[in-house]
Specification:
Elements (H helix, E strand, L loop, with lengths): L2 H22 L7 H20 L5 H19 L8 H20 L1 H15 L1 H9 L6 H16 L6 H22 L13
Helix pairs in contact: 1-3, 1-7, 2-3, 2-4, 2-5, 4-5, 5-8, 6-8, 7-8
Length: 192
């Protein structure tokens, strides 16, 4: 662990505060099931990277952040629905745990990170369909945090670089979809 990974993790946890504030004030919508599944996968990722003696600080920060975000979304009484997709991602969580048990920490890191990206698809769709509901600055801060963590990696191995690189690409996509809110007008839906 070096100063770059520490700075990245500090930025990551600080980025949650405006997100939590906006959720608490019902200013934005976040997909509850995405955050619940992210939390479950983050637990697997941080543990598997920790046991490999790898770059675990950023996923540990995201695990704490996902847990608090999930609790706040539940308290905000955000609507949620369980679809085939959530069942699919839940199966990926279970598969990640089975792979971890039978194949070890490295395989668990790869499968859980891939599952984390799949679990984020509803958030990507939400960002594309309704960029006005996405906290642009929060995802911008996540990009910076992920970049610091990736820069602090000691090499390009799975235990050092896979998670921060994957999180960086994912947050870049959310940011690109969300930045459109600067020139798109909000779409008002009327119910007749």
């Amino acid at each position: 662990m070096n100063s770059l990974t520490i700075v990245g993790s500090i930025i990551a946890i600080l980025a949650y505060f405006p997100l939590w504030w906006q959720i608490k004030r019902n200013e934005i919508e976040q997909n509850l099931l995405t955050w619940v599944l992210w939390f479950a996968l983050d637990v697997i990722i941080v543990a598997s990277i920790f046991f490999q003696k790898g770059n675990f600080l950023l996923p540990a920060t995201y695990t704490i952040g996902s847990l608090i975000t999930t609790i706040l979304i539940i308290k905000s009484q955000n609507k949620m629905s369980w679809t085939w997709f959530e069942s699919f991602v839940s199966a990926l969580v279970l598969i990640s745990m089975i792979i971890w048990y039978f194949s070890g920490d490295k395989a668990a890191t790869v499968t859980a990170t891939a599952a984390m990206l799949v679990a984020g698809i509803p958030q990507l769709v939400d960002a594309y369909k309704n960029p006005h509901s996405m906290p642009l600055l929060v995802y911008g801060a996540y990009i910076i945090a992920n970049s610091f963590s990736l820069a602090g990696a000691t090499d390009w191995s799975v235990k050092e670089s896979l998670y921060p690189a994957s999180a960086l690409i994912y947050c870049l996509l959310i940011f690109i979809f969300s930045i459109r809110k600067l020139w798109l007008k909000p779409v008002m839906v009327s119910i007749n």
